[in-house]
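INFO  loader      accepted 1 record
INFO  loader      residues=116
INFO  predictor   begin
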Amino acid sequence: MATACLFLGFDAPRPGSEKDAFPHMMGPMLEALDTFKKEGWFESYDAFALTPHCANLNMGVLIKGERAKLDELRRTDRFERFSMQLGRLFDGYGVIPGVTLEGMRKVAERNPDLLK
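INFO  predictor   done
INFO  writer      dumping tokens
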């Protein structure tokens, strides 16, 4: 079961890249994520788009897997290229590591004093 995650969040397309941004997201981005998954870098991912809400986070991907593999993936040339392409196309792009609910449980097991 996945204990860690990578959150890839982004806003609207950068001005001038609107024509390329959404086709990239629905094509090459998903293809790259499927390839990374087939190669065993992570267990699953969910891509999403939020409804209008007056903020600057509008789309994203939540990748779930094991921390060591996700950390290693982030440092590969292919993921860096993948990430830089998204950053060129979308404003506010960022990659944030985190833990899943299962990961939070494992942290709590290792640190029982945090629950007191």
